[in-house]
Amino acid sequence: MGKKSNELVQFIIGLVMLVSGGYAFLSSVHVSSGFTRLRFGGVHIGSGLVVIPFIIGIIMLFAMPRKFISKLVTGLGLLVIIISVIMSTDLYLTHLPLFAYLLMFIGIFGGVTLILKILLANPDRFEDEEEETRPIRSRKRRQRDYEPISTEAEQVSDVDEEMEALKKKYLK
User: Which of 17, 98, 110, 166 has the smallest C-beta neighbourhood within 10 Å, fewest atoms?
Assistant: First the structure.
């Protein structure tokens, strides 16, 4: 019993460490975005030009509504817009002392380690405790559980009787 409660305490401590470290880290990150010049590889693209494949896809969708190519161009145009928004997003960490960053990362990674240690532990180590708590069956009950309902000769004769009845019924 002591081992299970110790693991529960470790799991709760790991969860608290993960949540507090994650909250401290995420509250120190600032997000900014804007449609400025986007860069795909080495090519600079104006932010308004990203919408052109989507517009072409919409035109194709209205002109040829049943064609797969029009749906494909529209979907790819929408995907390009979403990718460009994600690519134009910038994340900045606030200026904090190194000690604060170390505490954040210790909380996050220490908490994840404690949680994974408990979740990925070997489940076979509790077999001894479970065997002690199982109810003991009597010998008569165990024998009764494994006794056959009928013998093989009885089953064969029942099948033969059924076959004869079916033959009489349908072969008239």
Answer: 98
Handedness of CA 147, 153, 156, 157 (dihedral sign): negative
DSSP string of the chain, one letter each residue: -HHHHHHHHHHHHHHHHHHHHHHHHHHTEEEEE----EEETTEEE-GGGGGHHHHHHHHHHHHSTT-HHHHHHHHHHHHHHHHHHHHTEEEEE----HHHHHHHHHHHHHHHHHHHHHHTS-GGGGHHHHHHHSPPPPHHHHHHHHS-SS-HHHHHHHHHHHHHHHHHHH--
**Residue span of the structural domain in which 23 resides:** 2-28+94-170
Distances (CA, A) of 12 to 16, 27, 116: 6, 22, 12
Distance CA(115)–CA(127), nearest Å, equals 22
Number of domains composing the chain: 1
115 phi and psi, to 5 degrees? -65, -45
Q: What is the pLDDT of residues 88-144, one digit of tens each?
A: 788 888 888 999 999 999 999 999 999 999 988 877 665 555 555 555 555 555 555
Mean of all residue pLDDT scores within the chain: 79
Please state the rounded mean pLDDT for residues 50-68. Answer: 91
Residue 56 lies in a domain: no
Q: What is the pTM of this model?
A: 0.49
